[in-house]
Amino acid sequence: MGLLEELSSKRIERRDFLKLCGAVTAAFSLPLTFQDHIASAAEQAMAKPRVIWLEGQDCAGCSESFLATMNPSVAELVLDTLSIRYHETIMGASGEVAEKALRDTMKEGGYILVVEGSIPKADDRFCLVGGKPFRETVMEVAENAALVIGAGSCAMYGGGIPGATPSMGGGVGEFVKNKPLINLPSCPVKPSRLVATVLYYLAAKKAPPLDSYNRPVAFYGSLIHDNCPRRGQFEKGNFLTDWNDPEQRGYCLLKKGCKGPKTYSDCAQVWWNEGASFCMNAGAPCAGCGQPEFYKEFSPLYANQETLGIGFGKSVNVDTAGAFVIGATAAGVAVHGIGRVIAGKGPDANKEDELG
Amino acid sequence: MSSVKITLPRRLFHWTNLIAIAALAVTGWYIHKPFVPGSMGLVRQIHFVFAFVFAINTLLRVYYAFTPAGDWRKYLKPQISKERIRLVFRHYAFYEHLPEGEEFRLLQNASYLALVLLFGVQIFTGILMYNPEGGVTGIINWLGGLSAVRQAHLLLQWAFIAFTIIHLYMVVSEELFQVKNIFFGITSGKEGVVNER
Amino acid sequence: MAQKIIIDPVTRIEGHLAIEVEVEGGKVKNAWSKGTMFRGLEVLLRGKDPREASYVTDRVCGVCTGSHQWASALALDDAFHANVPDGGRLVRNLILGAIWLHDHPLHFYHLSALDYLDVMAVAQYKGNDPGLNQVKDKLVKLVQMKDTSPLTPRYEPDEFCVTDPEIVTTAVAHYLKALEIQAKAKRMAALLGGKVPHNAAIVVGGATVYPELQLLAQFRSHLQEVADFIENIYIKDVLLFGTGPLLPLAKAGVGDSGGNYLSYGGFANSSAKTDLHLPAGVIIDNQFDKVSQVSTNMILEHVSHAWYDNNSPLNPAEGQTSVNPNKSQGYSYIKAPRYDGRAMEVGPLARTLISKPAEFMQLLQQGVKPGAVARHAARAIETVRLAKQLFKWLDQLENMVALGQCKIHDTSAWEVPKNSQGAGLTEAPRGALGHWLKIVDQKIDNYQLVVPSTWNLSPRDDNGGMGPVEKALIGAPVPDVSNPLNVVRIVRSFDPCISCAVHIIEPNSNKILEFKVS
User: CATH code at C459?
Assistant: First the structure.
C-alpha cells in the first residue's frame, strides 16, 4: 500500500527537525551556529512541549489555520513535536479524560498556554464555557503557564472584531499580567509564526525580541507596504479600480482600501498556506488584520478613509470631521462678515475711525 | 493707517511658509487620496522636500523670535489685563473699536503661538511617517499606531486649512493695508504707531 | 439523598454550545441545546460600509470558512444589483468547493471517527503489513509515553464500535493521511483565495483574483490528490463503518431529527439562479417524494427561549438582535428559526434527501434510515460528487482564461447603493445558510444571518417545539449514563461547527455528569 509506505516515513527525523530549526533561525535572524543550539535544546525539552489551547470568543479559525500547516505536517506537529494536552477541536478525548489532562497539566505547570479568541469585557455571560466565565478559566490556566501566546487578532489588545461588538472582547494580554506574553495577531493566526515562536521559546528559554504590542519583531518589524509586490505600482501612481482590466492586474490596491501602508507584517515575504499566496497577491486589499487598529479603526475596509474615535464608542471619518471643521469655520467667518456689514463697519471705515 | 515696515527675514519666513504649506497641502491630499493617475513616487518626494523646507523654516522662525530683533515677548509674555481682554472680546463680538498696538493683539498672537506649536506636532508626526521603522516604532505604537499618526496628521491639516480661512478673512476685514507689507515690505500711510518689539 | 457529582471542577466544559439531556430507563427523555457564546457581529455591522459585511461575517466561523463570506457576497450582489460574471462565479465555486473538500473529511476522521472505533485495537494488530505496523508502533509508543493526544480514547467502546485490529489500524493510518489532505485542500483554496481560513478574494460583485493558468494548474494537481483520497479512501471508510457494526444503529434510524428537511441550494452552475449543483428544496414529514420549493417568507425566528428581548416571530429580513442575558426563560444565544412553524434539519442529509443521488438511494433501499449514520454517508457521497464537479468548473474556467474571456468582477456595481436590501441564500458544509441585509444611506441598517447550526441546534420555539438536535436525541439509547456514546454520536453527526458540551442529568440520583464533545 503506497499510502502506508508514505505514512511510515512520518516520523520527524532529525534532518527534518534541523530544517525546521533552520527556518526559525532565519525568521529571527539568528547566527547559524545557534541552529545546533536550537536543535539540541528543543530535543532535550523533549521535544514535546506541553500545550494547552483555550478558545474564547472565537471562530475556531486559528485552530483551523494551525491545522493548515504542511511543513512540518500537522501529524508531525500534533503527534511528534508538541504535546497538545488540551485543545477542543483536535483532541479526541472525552470530557472526563480531557478535564483530567487539563488539571494534571495545570498542576505540572511550565506549559505553553495558547489563547484563541477574545474575552468579553462587557459581561462575563457573553462567553460561558461550561457555565463558567471564560475569563476565569483563562486566569486560572495562566497561573502556572510558562508562556502565554495570544493567537490571532481576537486575542490581541483590542480584541479584533469581537472587540468592536457590544460584548467588547478583549485580548488575553488585557487580563493576564505578569506572565511572558507573545501576541501573534492576524486573522486567523499565521501558522508559520506560531510554530516558529514555540520552537524559539523552547530553544532560547525566553521570548524572542518583541515590539511594544508583544509581537515578535521578526514577523512584525516591517510594513507590508514596503515589501509589497505592488509597491512599484504605488510609486508610479497606478491604482487598481477594475479587477477585470488586464492592464490593472498588478496595480496598487490603495483605492480599494488597502491598509498595507499602516500594517506591520511579513505577509508579503512569507506567504500563507505554505507559500500558496497572500491577500494582495489574490488581488484583495490588506485589511490590516495584524494591527491593533483592526477592526474598529480600520473600518471601512474597502474604502480609503481614515476614521477618528470621538468617544462613546463612536467614530467618524477624518475627512468628514475635516469638512465639518471647514464648514463651521466658513460659516463663522460668513456670519461675522455679515455682522460687520450690518454694523456698518467695513474694514476701511473701521480703520478710518481709529485714525479719526 | 499705520504700519511699520515688516523686516526682510519675517517676509521671507512668510513667503516660504505660504509656498511650502500650499505645496504640502496639495501633495498631502494626493497621497491621502490620489485624485488623478500620476506618479505617487514623485508626489511623495515633492512632499518630503517641502516638508524639510517647512520644518527648517519653522525652526529658523522660532530661532529668529529669540534674536535681539525677535518678537518672542508678544507671544510668550503677552500683556494681559482684564480691560484688554474685554476690549478684544467686544471688538470681535460687537465690532467695537480696538486701539492700535501690539498689546491689543492678544487673540491674534495667541493663535499664532498655537499655530507654531501645531506646526511642531505636524512636523513630528510627519517624521514618524517619513521613516516609520526602526527606532520610532515604539513611539508610533505608544501613540496608537501608524493609523492614529496618519489621522492626527490629516486632522491637523484640516485645522491649518481652517486657520487659513480665518487668517484671510481677518486680513481682508481688518488689515488689508498690511498685505503689501508682509509680502513686499511696502507700507502705506503713517508709520510708527505699532509697537514692534 | 440526592447527590450531586460534578465531574470536572466548575471550570470549563469548553464549548460555546452545551447539550443537556435527561436520561431515564436507559433512554434520553428530554434534551436542551444551549448556545453559550454571544459576539454580536450582527450588531457590529450596523452603520458600516456594506461591502465589508462579507469580510466581517466570514469571521462567524473559521471551520466552514468562506461560506459566510459567500452568502454575504450573494446578499450584497442582490442589494447592489450586481451581475457576477461567469469567471467570478467559478472562482467562488472553486474556492468554496476546495474548502468543502477539506471540511467533510476533517469532520469524519478528526471529529467523529473516534466515536466509531476502538483505537486501542491497534495494539492487537498481528498482520505483517509494514505500513500498518508502523502505525501500530507509533500508537503503542504514544501510549507508553502516556501521551496519546489527540487519539486519547473517548468513552469505553460499545457494541457498535469497530474493533477489528486491521480495520482500526488502517483507519488510524487514514486519520493521519486525512490530516495531510485537509491541509492540502486548504492550500488549494488559498491558491485562489489568498489565504485560508478566511480567504480574501470573494467580494461583492465577484472575485478579486485573476485565475492565471499556472495558478489553475497548481489547483488541479492539488485537486487530483484530494479527490483521489476522497474517492478511494474517505467514502470507502464511511461505507465500511456504516455497514459494519453500526448497521443496527443505521437501520434503526437513531438520531432522526423529525422528518423535516431544508436546503437553499448552492454552487451555481450558470448565471441562472436556479441552475444549482446542490438543488434547493423542502421536505415535510418524511415525505421524501414531495420536494417543494423554498419560500423564504415562511421562515420566522422565534426568540422566546433565547437570550434576546422578546418579540413576535420575525422574518430574518426584518429580524432584530437585541441581546438580553437576564431573560429567565432563555437558555441559549441561538434563536429558533422555523419554516412554516416547523424545525428543519439542514445539512448533508437534507441536501441528499432532496437531490436523491443514486448512491444514497441505494443505501435507503438497503434499509438505512435517516439518522446519525445516514448523515455521515450523505456527507461522504456529496463530497465525492462535489469533487467530480470541481473538475468540470476548473475546465470551464481554464477555457475562459485561455480564450482571454475571463471576467471576474462586476465593477459597475462596486459603489454602494443609497437604499437597498438583499438576501443571500446558499449552502454551507453544515447546511442552509442565509444572510439578509438592509442598506439605508449607503450604510448597513440591519444585518441578520441564520446559520446552519441555528437551524440544527436551535432551542425550543414559541410553541415549545424542540429544535432538530433536541428531537434527534429523544429516545437515544444510553444504557450507561457515564458512557453516553450515542448522545455524542448523534450530536456530532450534525457536525456542529463548534465544540459543544454535553450535560447529562439523571433525574433519580440528580447526578450531573459533564462530558465534552469536541
Answer: 1.10.645.10
